[in-house]
Amino acid sequence: MKRILVGIKRVVDYNVRIRVKPDGTGVVTDGVKMSINPFDEIALEEALRIKERGGADEVVVATVGPADTQQQLRTALAMGADRALLVQADGVIEPLVAARALLKLVEREQPLLVILGKQAIDDDNGQTAQILAALWNRPQATYASKIEITGETARVTREVDAGLETLDVDLPAVISTDLRLNEPRYVKLPDIMKAKKKPLDTLPLADLGVQARTQLKLVRFEAPPQRQKGIRVKDAAELVDALKKKGLL
Amino acid sequence: MSVQILIVAEHDGTRLNVSTAKCVTCARAVSGAVVTVAVFAADAAAVAAQAAQLAGVDKVLAVDNPANAHALAAVLAPQVAALAGPYALVLGPSTTFGKDLMARVGGLLDAPQVSDIMAIESAVRFRRPIYAGNAILTVEAVDAPKVVGTVRTASFEGAASGGSAAVEKVSLNVTLPTHTRFVSVSAARNDRPDLQTAARVISGGRALGSADGFKILYSLADKVGAAVGASRAAVDAGYAPNEMQVGQTGKIIAPELYMAVGISGAIQHLTGIKDARTIVAINKDGEAPIFEVADFGLVGDLFQVIPEIERLL
Ligand SMILES: Cc1cc2nc3c(=O)[nH]c(=O)nc-3n(C[C@H](O)[C@H](O)[C@H](O)COP(=O)(O)OP(=O)(O)OC[C@H]3O[C@@H](n4cnc5c(N)ncnc54)[C@H](O)[C@@H]3O)c2cc1C
Ligand SMILES: Nc1ncnc2c1ncn2[C@@H]1O[C@H](COP(=O)(O)O)[C@@H](O)[C@H]1O
Known about the structure:
heterodimer, A: alpha/beta, Rossmann fold, two-stranded antiparallel sheet, 27% helix, B: alpha/beta, 2 domains, 7-stranded parallel sheet, 5-stranded parallel sheet, globular, binds flavin-adenine dinucleotide, binds adenosine monophosphate
């Protein structure tokens, strides 16, 4: 069975305006829309496309997080994933813990490919794919904008600071997605109904033998400093003048 | 009390990237810091010599290996991990090179990583942006024998030259994987200043309308010696290559002058320019959010304004 494992993280929707709690203990999440991390949606879309091309037989989505993540996993099933695994844990899941839990799932599921997002848009850590690849002792291809699988290898184009880099990685491997890899499909209503019958298994993190340790204490959250409001200039001449005065042109 | 800090150098085989000098400044902010820079390359001598000249560097380790000809995280990480023993803090830049590599190092060392360090209060206490810069988080490592970090380069000035650290050749006895192979990298064009270090940056958005439309920005940029950037919408539409993207998922930059031309000012874009000294917005919609962060705002049609600015110079 050729399987692809996709990591799904439940995050505050990217359209939500983030507000820091006045007491500095976190950001406001009460009553806020939660969604699949956008990069994970892209990861799932890519897995589905690989399966549709005949490159895989099964797409499994997995999360390490609170019970409410069921909603996001159902959405993932409606998009086309075959089954879902919810490793239940409350509170902050640090990347080392997420990666350890994903490694346990990798050992059980023996995927040929693990696709994760390049970063979760809440903590912006950007670590889990690389840590998993390290623990698994397998290749990593981060920031993918193109994936081609031929036999036992994947050719991955990566978005790097210099431009586009291409790597060949032996499978199994871990790939993390960048935004331009694909555009995720929309979920259709009948698929939501069908998704209700797809398997979604829940297990506590402790059952995987992974300890939910936290090594980074969240000391304080603050709103970022606001920029001073600037001035309006009426035309190009006034702008050029102003910039010259400041020595910027 | 001294704190041993290891910095993994970023370079292209011949030249040290300025991101390394920024990591040095970050490391130096820790009291008692003893800073070692490690250079991994096929032949590290030239880059190691440049690192040795950075003020604030105490020692440079040069690790030669043909396998290091290209910076592959899977190949470099076990070497960094092998060197990491004596160091309390292991830093790399928060560039695609550093982000790709350092987290793998953290995985091998079983050490927590602090990403995008924007301020360092001690060897275990850091400030970093989260939620695309909409919140600033102070974190403190507890129960961690070692911490790995990536340094947000826009938050630090590069260390000056004038150092004279000793360079030590190191040979490591680690088995390196062959499961990851470099194929190619698209040649970046070099005739314009580098986006990440340029003092002036002019960026275009969806409003430019085509790759051809960007030519008016290139023309102005060349006249003032600016680098050219782009919004994600412009890159997605194929008007500009991906390496020009500025923002949360592109480059985070801190130029003296940033000109946003035909860019609406989405939060993900603003994340990339928060540290710009002066922001100029040119947009035909006076209500565009970019004006909320602009020091100078001009409401107008860019296709008239930009050529006019060029004429006035
Ligand atoms: C997870 C995630 C990550 C993202 N990361 C990034 C990122 O790193 N960088 C980034 O930029 N975006 C990013 N985005 C996208 C971002 O949300 C916006 O969609 C994007 O920045 C919009 O680009 P734009 O301003 O060029 O286009 P638009 O929003 O379409 O704005 C075009 C602007 O041009 C103006 N205009 C039109 N014609 C003219 C004219 N003739 N003269 C003057 N002005 C004119 C319009 O008034 C408008 O304000 C991300 C989105 C997501 C979901
Ligand atoms: N708790 C989690 N459960 C499942 N996948 C995760 C979890 N945390 C992170 N990931 C995956 O790793 C990617 C990067 O996350 P991060 O390292 O937190 O930025 C995400 O886009 C997910 O694909």
